[in-house]
Amino acid sequence: MRMHLVLGLVGALLLAGAGKLAWVEYARGGELRAQAQAQHTASMVVPAQRGDILDARGRVLVGSVRRPMVFADPTRIADVRYAAYSVAPVLELDAAALERTLRERGDAQYVVIKRDLSDDMLRAFEQVRDSRRLWGFRVQNESARDYPYGGLAAHVVGFVQRDTSQAGLSGIEQAYERVLHGVDGRRWATVDRQRRRLRPLTEQYEPPLDGATVVLTIDAGIQQAAEKHLREAVEKFSVEWGAALVMDPRSGEVLALAVEPGFHPLDTIPPDEKLKHRALERRRNRAIADAFEPGSIFKPFVASAALDAGIVRLDEWFEINGPRRAFGRRTIQDVHPYARLQFFEVISKSSNIGMGLLGQRAGNARLSEWVRRFGFGQLTGIGLPGESAGLLADLDQWTSFSTQSIPIGQEISVTPLQMLTAFCALSNDGVLYRPRIVRGVVRTDGTVVEDCSQPVAVRRVVRAEIAHEFRQRALAETVRTGTGKGAAIPGYQVFGKTGTAQVAERGRGYTAGSYVGSFVGGAPAGEPRVAVLVSLYKPGGRAYYGGTIAAPTAGRIIGDALEYLGVQPESSAEFGAAVPR
Amino acid sequence: MAEAMHAPTSSFAAREPALSAAPGAYDWVIVFLVGTLMTLGAVIVYSASVSIDAPAMNWQQWWRTPLRQGVFAVAAFVLMALVARTDYRAWAWDEPGQGWRAGGWALLAGLLLIIVLIPGVGAERLGAQRSFSLRLGQVALSFQPSELAKPALILWLAALLTRPRARVDDVTRGYLPALGSAGLLIGLTVIEDFGTAALMGVVAMAMLFWAGARWLHLGVTALVGLVAGLALVLLEPYRWQRVITFFSANPDPQREGYQVNQALIAIGSGGWLGRGLGAGVQKYDYLPQDNNDFILAILCEELGIAGGLAVIALFLLLLWRGWLISRRAPDAFGRLLAGGLTLTICLQAAFNIGVVTNSIPTKGISLPFVSAGGSGLLFLGVAAGLLAAVGGRATSRDTSRDTSRDTSRDTSRDTSRDTSRDTSRDTSRERKRAT
User: Fold this and answer.
1) Could you give the angle at which helices B295-328 and B375-392 cross, rounded to 10 degrees?
2) Can you give the residue ranges of every domain in chain B?
3) Does B347 touch chain A (CB under 8 A)?
4) Domain presence at residue A525
5) Chain B nearest-CA residue for A194
6) Taking CB atoms and an 8 Å limit, are B52 and A192 in contact across chains?
């Protein structure tokens, strides 16, 4: 009896246990299954392949490659010192620093050790890891930016953050980040408590949508020429920095945009404050971000607008009586003394006094309207990050000085891009086009996301015949006989305007010996195919005139571009006869 | 084993009414049930011990791999089979002066429990349990004296309470010596393993109860035992914490309620039929003690509630069989021994199931034969072997009714039964001679 009692009780306990087991499943099964799924499942990002950046002819300026990367899971490294000193030599790292890193991040499971391994380095590393059984180090392929043209047009394409995010930090990479990045996919896996993958949950896979391809208006051939000639000029004239822009005046497409000294998108930014500052300066796209007083290259806009308004004729005589002339309290100087000049000569010989007289005749209100008509003081809307609108005071803040300053390119700051964009209107039929650097965006499957290959006309700035006449008689004359002779090239009639501006620095006014030498021009004069601007900021040598340092550089770029584009040389008769002497 | 399974002498179902125990006869049902549980344990522990870091098998270091349980299960099974073929009466106290046979084991267990306390000898594990570490070459074995204390206590109490002229209803001559010696062993065990000690206490009380102790004595003892147990719970903060956790309405599932919550998730998420053997996820560091005290939760996750119920059914079968063996044992010693062993195994299983299903507070008690364990499994094999050995001597009829008096209470009430005691004793002795 007594044994029945006790053992029966135990039996009852066991049955109760069985009942509880069934009850747990019956009453809470669903809830517990949900809890289990929540804690067992983790999602991981499947990065989308970043889109390429192509030039106008489909050449890959920026692509993506899979590069091996080594990361460490310090929780799986038993002897940190041994591990660090084993792999550091083959990875070309400092062993002591690596050991420190591994110790500091001892409880992390993902510490990037070395990116972008070469094939040889990878082989050496894997050999060391396998022979010494260092399973705490692992290799992963990660997507990295690749530059088949060696960082060509770096300021245009920009650079990306060098980690798995690949986030664009400047240029097209930044402006088109969303398009290039695509949509990351997601996959789910059953994981252990340390979130390590046990097995994939394939039924929930969300595939990534790869980034789209951005096609630029930049032409690698012209870009290479622009960069080459600009680099030579920057070195030869010890220039602080230089910018060269090439545009198609018929459409506003930017064919080349070069800034020197430049950078390679894969350069690392040094941590040292001073070096870092310099590195970041080199990365700035000065062609769109830096505004400065243009000087004489600004004269064509006031001059052509005055012709369009009918207040002056090209063959009208101006009494210069140089080299000095007083306008109220202000004295304007010419470089060379002239007694009297026809108006086209005021341009070709770059007479400040002549332009001052024109300013007097036009008055501030008209000057202000003309300058704004050409787009100055406003963003061009090229769509690159960091664009500057330059500096142009409102009319009510203009003074009597402005009347002579504006016509000779003072009291106004413009960016190289604004300058050349406006000049394109004089190089076509007088229509201002919005500058464009992206032709379109295309998905990898061929669907077009965005088509911006059509020219966007902003407004007509001068009548077509005014643009033709001004180009052929004043601007071509500048290259033929005036200040821009250095830009002349055989076979084509180059037209353009030189400029040498004193650098006005904030708070200090014009600084002695600080100049910007520029040339803006194009060719062929009859039916221009390219418009070019070269600006060289603060030349260090004795030569600083735009006509001396910038014009020859521009001429070389124009020559290479026309040859590259296959533009037939004009007959000598054509451009000899077009302009009356 | 196959031949034994067909031997009619080993079965209760034997038609022959004679006490025809052949030498080496044992109860094959017990061996079969325990073998099944061990096999299941080896498989589930193998599954629960996998790690995404370590290889599943390394023959040079098998004792560190999931296969360790399988090796120990085979050893424990062999040990069980060997012990099952011995004569359990070798440990009986049939004549004066034979008390050392069973007492020796209890003494050894007590000594080891004391030695393990000496600093530097015993290794502390999980803060609570102390064990010996034995190195055989490269293989490290650990052994907890409390594992030996469990069967030794049962053996000793069974012998002591059925010794010649034992009077359990007499305080000084019967009850107190038994209680005192058991209390000493349990007291030594409580130092290293509270759960095992509590189990031993319940089993000792039950054996005293079966042997005919008075209700009054047992009641007083139970009261003292409860107070002592409560004091021990209150003295150790972690034990008190477990009780608080169990009774609190909403234990934090990330902290003190973590383990039990994870066990419930394992049980519930498996569903009725389980995720499939090896397909569980909770074993990947979610559920602590997954291959040990909480192996049943992993089993339920992989084999479903059905698997869990099957395990409980196996223990119920074991209970039934042990009960039957006890009732049909040829002598009082065998009856008490079989009852004690059955109770220990099945009560421990019930405790474990209660913990895993969050029915009683967390306590370090493993599931017999199934949970991972090295030396513990071997001792369980010995215990099961003894039970099977008693079963091998079973009569075909229920002996509990006519022999219950030889150890139980009111011998004075019915003197006529006294003679029956003597006869049963005589017959058992004759049988011994016959073998």
Assistant:
1) 30
2) 2-395
3) yes
4) yes
5) B285
6) yes
Closest CB from A10, A29, A33 relative to B346: A10
Which residues of chain A are within 8 Å of residue B266 when distances are taken between CB atoms?
36
Determine whether B248 is exposed, middle or buried from the number of CB atoms within 10 Å of its CB (0-12, 13-18, 19+): exposed
Is residue A439 located within the same domain as residue A422?
yes
Same domain? A154 vs A238:
no
- Using the beta-carbon criterion (under 8 Å), do B269 and A37 form an inter-chain contact? yes
The radius of gyration of chain A from alpha carbons, rounded to an integer in Å, stands at 33
Most confident range (mean pLDDT) of A315-329, A414-428, B64-78, B170-184 is A414-428
**Ranges in chain A, pLDDT < 50:** 573-581
Q: In this predicted complex, what is the ipTM? A: 0.85
In a domain, A97, yes or no: no
Contact state of A11 with B346 under an 8 Å Cβ cutoff: yes
Question: The tokens 């992206």 sit on which residue?
Answer: A438
Residue A348 in contact with residue A474, Cβ under 8 Å? yes
Rounded to whole angstroms, the Cα distance separating A7 from B322 reads 9
Yes or no: say if B305 and B271 are a contact pair by the CB < 8 Å rule: yes
What does the pLDDT look like over A447-493, one tens digit per residue? 999 998 999 999 999 999 999 999 999 999 999 998 889 999 998 99
A478 vs A471: CA distance, rounded Å:
10
Name the pTM for this structure: 0.70
Number of domains comprising chain A: 2
Q: Which two tokens stand for residue A158?
A: 């920009």
What CATH number did the domain enclosing A504 receive? 3.40.710.10
Final residue before a domain boundary, out of A170, A185, A214? A214
A246 and A315 belong to one structural domain: yes
* Nearest CA-CA distance, residue A83 and chain B, Å: 18
| Nearest-CA distance B417 → chain A (Å) | 17
Largest CA distance in chain B: 71
- Domain final residue, candidates A155, A187, A214: A214
The tens digit of pLDDT for each residue in B102-114 reads 999 999 999 988 8
Count CA atoms within 13 Å of residue B229 on its CB side: 19
**A260 and A293 belong to one structural domain:** yes
Predicted confidence at residue A429, as pLDDT, reads 92
At A189, which CATH number? 3.90.1310.10
DSSP letter for B147, please.
H
Residues B16-58 have pLDDT tens digits of 333 445 777 889 999 999 999 999 999 999 888 877 666 556 6
Q: What domain range includes position A243?
A: 220-578
